[in-house]
Amino acid sequence: MLEVLIIGAGAAGLSAARQLQKKGVSFKIIEASYRVGGRAWTDQQMLGVPVDMGCSWVSGADKNSLTKVGRNAGLTMVDHTNASEALYVGDRRATDAEWDQFEKARRKIDKRLSKAGKKGSALPASAVISKDLPFSATAQSWLGPMDYGVDFKDLSTLDHWEQTDDQPSYLVKEGFGTLVATLADGLDVSLNTKVSRIDWSGDGVEVETSQGTLRAARVLITVSTGVLASGDITFHPALPVEKQEAIQNVPMGLLVKVPLLFDGARMGFSEGEWVTYKVDEDQAGKACYFIAWPCGHDYLFGNIGADLGWELSRAGSDAAVDYAMGALTSMLGNDVRKHFVQGIMTDWAVNPLTYGAYSVQRPGTTGARKALGRSVADRIFFAGEAVGGARAALANGAYDSGKKVAKKIAKKALAAR
Ligand SMILES: Cc1cc2nc3c(=O)[nH]c(=O)nc-3n(C[C@H](O)[C@H](O)[C@H](O)COP(=O)(O)OP(=O)(O)OC[C@H]3O[C@@H](n4cnc5c(N)ncnc54)[C@H](O)[C@@H]3O)c2cc1C
């Protein structure tokens, strides 16, 4: 009997597969999509240049397992650690005094969140910040929607505390998705194979897919918590209540990326510059912030997160591109439209293979990520970004978790021979 069936060929599934291959354990890796990489995806077609639709930053690059993968593959890792930042107030650049206020807001908010999280409090971030701080909404818009994919009411101080925000961070010129896809080299991935049911009532597991039924001693599931919560994969018998609760308590946040291609004009921004503008204090999270010309490419990356991101995803690509262009013209004026070529929007919100961008742990809950990571009946195992520990939500968290769980499974499989 096949020893392990891996569901999903993203960073977690691919690293697990490589580990099992190394250990000499038999496995099959199946993937619903036409491509590998999952949420690590570099599109080359839509704008005619590499665009990272999912992950972009190799964060904590000096300790990140994927840095070595990228270097070994000969990819161009571009240091983005100390990128410059532009801050606008309306249609002008911020004064030094405004910059100071913004920096102070960022520091104070982070301090408040960390203080609560350090104490083990899983409070909504919105409950611990002071409301009367100038530039508070501007700072919240980066930290909540654009970092975690949720507004402050949905961000847990504990989840914030438990996750590492590492520097240095690198961008990959050929794309982070390109980097993750190299993990599939030498692996036989069954693409276009969508799982709909997992039966673990007998010995081993029986997995129904769009290409027929597969049997294995164990299954490793790496799909997002959005997919797990959707019910698109049913379990027989149902998963234990503890597992079902864990899935509900680690829902998906959303970051929508809106890459905007220009004709080569630089509009006053340097390569890799962060572009932020002041948001009205009652509009925290309702913003589109940008990264200009990443790795020298001719596009700006608009980033829209959380509730506004879900709303614009429902409205469609034109609405998101209009919103991003509106934000840009408010800062720079309508003349920039002359240089605009094309804009696109990522579809993670509505994509049935993700249903969101990356996971967050709900305020008011503790231990959900750990509970999610526990195996069921020694036959159903879980890996992926949601159980990535201090690097949850990140591609390297996914990669490391896949490797770790595969080691555990290999031990069991080899002992059972
Ligand atoms: C917009 C965005 C920005 C991000 N930015 C960063 C960043 O800058 N840095 C960073 O480190 N991380 C970032 N991330 C997060 C990172 O991309 C993810 O954490 C990581 O890629 C997740 O890997 P995974 O293997 O856990 O899951 P996935 O990549 O989702 O892999 C799971 C696979 O399962 C497949 N699947 C789903 N359902 C089924 C089914 N029914 N049957 C079979 N297969 C199925 C999917 O198609 C997918 O390929 C970002 C993500 C997004 C979306």
From TrEMBL:
Organism of derivation: Roseobacter fucihabitans
First-level EC class: oxidoreductase
Keyword Transferase: no
Protein family according to the UniProt entry: Belongs to the tryptophan 2-monooxygenase family.
Catalysed transformations (reactions): L-tryptophan + O2 = indole-3-acetamide + CO2 + H2O
EC number: 1.13.12.3
Pfam families reported in the protein's UniProt record: Amino_oxidase
Transmembrane segments: none
SUPFAM superfamilies (UniProt xref): FAD-linked reductases, C-terminal domain, FAD/NAD(P)-binding domain
Keyword ATP-binding included in the entry's annotation: no
Domain Amine oxidase: 12-409
Annotated metabolic or biological route of this protein: Plant hormone metabolism; auxin biosynthesis
InterPro entries referenced in this protein's UniProt entry, alphabetically: Amino_oxidase (IPR002937), FAD/NAD-bd_sf (IPR036188), Flavin_monoamine_oxidase (IPR050281)
Keywords on record: Auxin biosynthesis
Name of the protein described by the UniProt record: Tryptophan 2-monooxygenase
Organism ancestry: Bacteria, Pseudomonadati, Pseudomonadota, Alphaproteobacteria, Rhodobacterales
